Amino acid sequence: MAVAITRTDFSARDLRAAAAKTTDAKAARRMLAIALVLEGLDRKTAAESCGMDRQSLRDWVHRYNAAGLAGLSNRRSAGPKPLLSADQKAELAQIVREGPDPAVDGVVRWRRVDLQRKIEARFGVRMHERTVGKQLAALGFRRLSVRPQHPKSDPGAQAAFKKTSSATVADALPDHARGKPLEVWFQDEARVGQQGTLTRIRGAARQPTRARRATPATPGRSPALSDGSRSQAHSSAPSAPNAEPPPRWSCPMQTPPP
Questions:
Q1: Torsion angle of the four alpha carbons 169, 174, 178, 180, in this order, in degrees rounded to the nearest 10
Q2: Distance (Å, whole) CA 44 – CA 115
Q3: What is the pTM of this model?
């Protein structure tokens, strides 16, 4: 049984004008189908002319009667429920800003795996380590590779070393180095084991660089080297062209019978 169109606030002409203005192509097709019905066209023809079947048009008539033009648009899903609420996200951001407690957390800086355990213990929510990174990115945090500060560092000793380091270096200089430009290099324990650009520079010599011993040459062949390869003789004279091989489809000429 066909469902009657009970709304009278839009005529067929109004529905066509609204379909021309909207940017939702699917909603525009539904408006045109209802306009065809209002103009007296049967439901099956009106539905097929707008790319739907009669049952779909019946369902959209229900939506149109209940909500008007807004009911002809697709409803967007709210999506999955977030793992953390707004209050929990604010508390997580505060935990990241304050940093870990070495006595309680056992680390001096946060990692995703550490925050993963922290979130599970504090909020009772288990999430993947990659999901923790997405949560931090949504809160405005970025991954930075910085040198951590030792919990037992002494700022006073560091300041005193900066004041007396020049005198200490001057006393350690030998006599022949005094009065000359001096470069002081500090070794950073955080960079021990890292490769700089100098270690990636390859030598300009061709490989292999060690000498190879040549074995006595065989008549008609080039002398062989110790690794089994053959040395190539270079000459400034142009090489003679090679004789063209016979075609693969050629066959020997037969001798005519006597």
A1: -90
A2: 59
A3: 0.40
- Given a cut of 90, whether residue 27 has pLDDT beyond it is yes
- Alpha-carbon distance of 205 to 227, in angstroms, equals 19
CB burial of residue 226 (10 Å; 0-12, 13-18, 19+):
exposed
Q: Which residue has the tokens 């429920």?
A: 81
Q: How confident is the model at residue 205 (pLDDT cuts 50, 70, 90)?
A: very low
Q: Which residue has the tokens 């079947």?
A: 53
Helix, strand, coil in percent for the chain, rounding step 5: 45, 0, 55
* Identity at 167, one-letter amino acid code: A
Q: What is the pLDDT of residue 229?
A: 52
| SS3 state of residue 230 | strand
Q: Sign of the CA dihedral 132, 135, 139, 143? A: positive
- Given the structure tokens 């021990």, which residue do they identify? 192
What is the rounded CA–CA span in Å between residue 50 and residue 26? 10
Radius of gyration of the chain (CA): 42
